[in-house]
Each structure stands twice: as C-alpha cells, then as structure tokens.
C-alpha cells in the first residue's frame, strides 16, 4: 500500500479533536474552572502543545509521564502526545515517590509533566529513579510560581512554536501505557494502540447510548482509563461537551450538574452513594441528568432502588472491564438494571466473551470459570514482559483473571477475582503488594490481605497479621508502617492480630476463611480502622 493511500485512510487518536473541530468549531468542548474552550480552541491548543513538545525534542516513540489531578490540560496533553506519536503514561497522583519512580524507570520516561502542587513528590520520584527523564514541566494550577528546574506548560501555549510536524501513527503503534495493579507486587504497563482505543470508543458510544447532545461531567481521576477513555475521549469524538471538575466532591458535583445542565455522569457506586447521602441532593435541580454510568463494582440493589426513586428520569449502565481492554468489555443496560441487578451484562459491541476452564476449554452456561475476551480493544501486551503477555493471551483470548459465569441468557456474572484484587472506592489494590509491605515490618511472621465489605468504599483493605514468637504487634504501628510506604487507598482499613492463619494441607492460606470469619462481623476483634 503506497504512502498516500495509507495516509488518506488514517484515523488515529490525534485526529479526533481536529475532525470534531471541523464539524463543530463553535460548540463548547471542554470546561474546567474558569476555562471554557470551543472545539476549535481546544484543537488549536493541542496543536500548540504538540509543536512545543516537538521543539523541546519530544519525538515519536518517546514516553511522556503525566502526574496531575483533573484539569483542562490533561485532555490537551492526551491528544497532543497522540498527534506526535509520543506515548502517554498517566500516573496515579496518590502514589508515593518510590511507586512513581518505579513507573518512570519501567517505561523509561523521557518527559515528565506534573501538576505544580505535586512537584515535591515528583522530585522525590526523580531522585529515586534511574534518570531517563530529560525534560520536566509543571502545570500551573495553584497560581504559584513554577519551581526552579521545571518548564511551565503555560509557556507551551500561545502559538510561538509554529505548527507541529505531520506524524504518521499506524493503527498498532503504541500511544498509551496504562499501569495496572494485578497479582504482582509491582504494576504492569499495559500497552494500548490507536486501534485499541478507537474500537473501544465505538463500543462505548454504541453500547452506552452516547450522543453528541450529551453534556457530561468528569469527576473521577483522568489517570484512570475509565474516565479518560470510556467517557471524556468519547465525548471529544462525538462532539459532546465535557465538564471537568477537580474531583468527586458531592456538593461540587450537584452544583455542577445544575449549573451546566449536565446530562451524563459516570461514578463508581461509592460516589453515587455519596450524592444520595448529601444534604444538598434534594435541593438540587437534577432534571437534565438522564444517563448514569457506574463501574468498578456492582451497584447495591438497595441503592439502585433509591436512585430510581429519587432520580426517576435517569437511565443506568454498568460498565465492566479492565485496563487491558481499554477498558470496556461488557455492559448491563438500562432495561436490565431491575431484573439483572449485580450482573456485568453482555459483551460490548466489539467484544466477544466466554468462560473457560483451566485448560482454556469453553464452559457451558452457569458453570464458573475464568472470564476471557477477544476484541480489537485489547492491549498489545505488557511492557517488557513477554512471558506475562503470552500467559494473558493463552489460547488466543485475553484472560481477565476474573472468575464468573454466563447464565442461560448470556448475561455475565462476576463471582470472584482470580488475581485476588481489591477494588476500594474504584481503585485497584493488589493484595500481594500490601502483604509484601507488611512483611517488611519487624515482628511480622505471616500476613494475609483481603477485601471486606465497606459501606462507603464498597470494598476495604483488611489485613490479618501473625506476630513472630515473643513479639507483640500494635495495630496502629502496622498501619503507620504501611502509610509510610503505600498510597493511602492501599493502607489496610482493618488490621487484625491473630495467633495463626488458616491453611489447607499444602500450606496455602485460605483467604476465603478469613473473609468468612471477619468480613461480615460488625466489629472484628482487635482492629484499627483508618479513615
């Protein structure tokens, strides 16, 4: 295929804002705080930032790590990097310096863009990293002066760098690396291509009933593929309006929905619960809100009923998936919320899902096995980990690591996580990482970490620790030890000191016994709760 023909057929992530601007130049595209950008203005900013990055030496294949809370600069950088063929690496802003350093080194980041309020932790990370970063820039959100040694992202706008170069980004060129916490003690970098994301956007739009008339508020962190790719990027693709807020504060969300006449909102169940419990809920005018999305965990039936009663005009979707699927795999639509509550629904438009046994053989309806998918959404592999990639794609299907079954009507039900993941408030916590941190504490002989139900976070991190002979462990000391080494959401909210851990004859710790013993007890013995 000749070059002209190839370019004529191209549509990659970086093309999306330009094409939306050509259709709807004067329509409101992105709002954050006092900044209100039309699609034409948004696209122009993307070109300006792309040109500036190019002038600073960023080139196709380089990695740009982004550490920031929600802001209008986030989607600009998302599309500017894609336009240059630079790989974007979003980083969770709740991580510690050491955790960030690991990601910088693992992806060999060339550029590090950081919100100014996070420069301190970023500098700690840089001090602990191997030093691949050659350019660092700060997003000036606080109004304070940009620290010494950092460029200001504000200087990248204004057009003084001219136009960005034309870069051909092939469908299967990697444009994003998303770090996911699995069973490993260290996160893995899932590589997503333009093809992965474009097909996923189409699945979200069709499966989720999205349209260009939508006005959506984006409150969950944009480092998450759910908020960034299931919702914000699909809005830009469609020509819908995106309202970005700093975080999922209930009062701010309710005020924003009313002021901006918001039609769409995605939240994990924990945030929907906080909205319903807010003292401002009943006084807010929420009549424009017509589409609601949730994920990370099923919406409790009693909350679903309350939402139907207090938000009678809203239609709900449950999105289920994982980072490696970019991230939508299946969805439960509005028509099934009452009758199939708790189900993950059916495969999205461009996804095929089945249940397999340990030998990758498909299982019949209602038999529990591993959930696997086949889709162009899927990652092209884990960065630098070919063996993990081969394992994940055994038999020509992506292995999710989740256990579940398909009922007689083809609805997916997730019953457990093979990877032993905890989803606390929508954040993934790898139990092994927390356990390894606990073992670093002097006096800990054994440790087991597992999920317990929580009224706010849906799941909370719980730990049972066994002290070494002759050692007395204090629950608060265990918590303090973890706080110094882990992001806050990974720190156990419950710590139980025990004489021993239940095990099977081969010595494997039986976490299901621990969950049964402590998970449903209102006041587990000898526990410390972290607020």
TrEMBL record:
Coiled-coil regions listed: none
**PANTHER family referenced in this protein's UniProt entry, alphabetically:** LONG-CHAIN-FATTY-ACID--COA LIGASE, NONRIBOSOMAL PEPTIDE SYNTHASE PES1 (EUROFUNG)-RELATED
Q: Which residues form the AMP-binding enzyme C-terminal domain?
A: 433-508
Q: Which family does it belong to?
A: Belongs to the ATP-dependent AMP-binding enzyme family.
Keywords, A to Z? Ligase
Molecular functions per Gene Ontology = acid-thiol ligase activity
| Listed transmembrane segments | none
One Pfam family of this chain:
AMP-binding
PROSITE patterns assigned to the protein according to its UniProt record, in alphabetical order:
AMP_BINDING
Domain AMP-dependent synthetase/ligase stretches = 18-383
The identity of this protein, by name, is: Fatty-acyl-CoA synthase
Q: Does the keyword Ligase apply?
A: yes
């Amino acid at each position: 295929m000749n070059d002209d023909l190839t370019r004529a057929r191209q549509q990659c992530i970086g093309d999306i804002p330009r094409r939306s601007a050509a259709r709807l130049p004067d329509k409101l595209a992105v709002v954050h705080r006092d900044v209100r950008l039309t699609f034409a203005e948004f696209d122009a900013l993307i070109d300006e930032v792309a040109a500036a990055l190019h002038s600073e030496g960023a080139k196709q294949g380089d990695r740009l790590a982004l550490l920031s809370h929600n802001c209008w600069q986030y989607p600009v950088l998302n599309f500017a990097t894609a336009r240059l063929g630079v790989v974007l690496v979003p980083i969770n802003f709740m991580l510690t310096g050491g955790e960030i350093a690991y990601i910088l080194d693992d992806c060999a980041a060339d550029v590090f863009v950081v919100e100014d309020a996070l420069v301190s932790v970023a500098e700690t990370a840089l001090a602990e990293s191997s030093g691949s970063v050659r350019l660092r820039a700060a997003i000036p959100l606080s109004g304070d002066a940009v620290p010494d040694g950092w460029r200001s992202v504000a200087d990248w706008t204004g057009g003084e760098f001219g136009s960005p170069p034309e870069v051909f980004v092939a469908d299967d060129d990697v444009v994003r690396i998303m770090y996911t916490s699995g069973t490993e003690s260290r996160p893995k970098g899932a590589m997503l291509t333009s093809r992965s994301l474009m097909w996923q956007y189409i699945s979200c739009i069709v499966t989720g009933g999205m349209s260009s008339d939508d006005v959506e508020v984006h409150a969950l962190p944009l480092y998450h593929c759910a908020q960034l790719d299931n919702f914000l990027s699909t809005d830009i693709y469609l020509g819908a309006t995106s309202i970005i807020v700093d975080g999922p504060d209930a009062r701010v969300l309710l005020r924003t929905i009313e002021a901006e006449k918001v039609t769409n909102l995605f939240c994990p169940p924990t945030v929907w619960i906080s909205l319903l419990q807010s003292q401002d809920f009943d006084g807010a005018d929420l009549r424009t809100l017509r589409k609601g999305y949730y994920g990370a965990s099923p919406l409790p039936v009693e909350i679903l009923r309350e939402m139907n009663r207090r938000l009678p005009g809203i239609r709900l979707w449950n999105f289920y998936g994982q980072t490696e699927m970019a991230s939508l795999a299946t969805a439960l639509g509005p028509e099934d919320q009452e009758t199939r509550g708790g189900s993950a629904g059916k495969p999205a438009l461009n996804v095929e899902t089945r249940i397999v046994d340990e030998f990758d053989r498909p299982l019949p309806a209602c038999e529990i096995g591993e959930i696997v998918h086949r889709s162009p959404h899927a990652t092209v592999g884990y960065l630098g980990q070919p063996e993990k990639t081969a394992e994940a794609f055994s038999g020509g299907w992506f292995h999710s690591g989740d256990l579940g079954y398909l009922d007689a009507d083809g609805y997916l039900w997730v019953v457990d996580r093979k990877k032993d993941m905890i989803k606390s408030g929508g954040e993934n916590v790898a139990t092994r990482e927390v356990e390894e941190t606990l073992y670093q504490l002097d006096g800990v002989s054994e440790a087991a970490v597992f999920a317990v139900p929580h009224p706010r976070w849906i799941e909370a991190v719980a730990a049972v620790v066994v002290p070494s002979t002759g050692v007395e462990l204090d629950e608060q000391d265990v918590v303090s030890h973890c706080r110094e080494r882990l992001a806050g959401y990974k720190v156990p909210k419950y710590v139980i000191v025990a004489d021993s851990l239940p095990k099977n004859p081969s010595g494997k710790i039986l976490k299901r016994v621990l969950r049964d013993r402590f998970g449903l007890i209102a006041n587990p013995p000898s526990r410390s709760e972290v607020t």
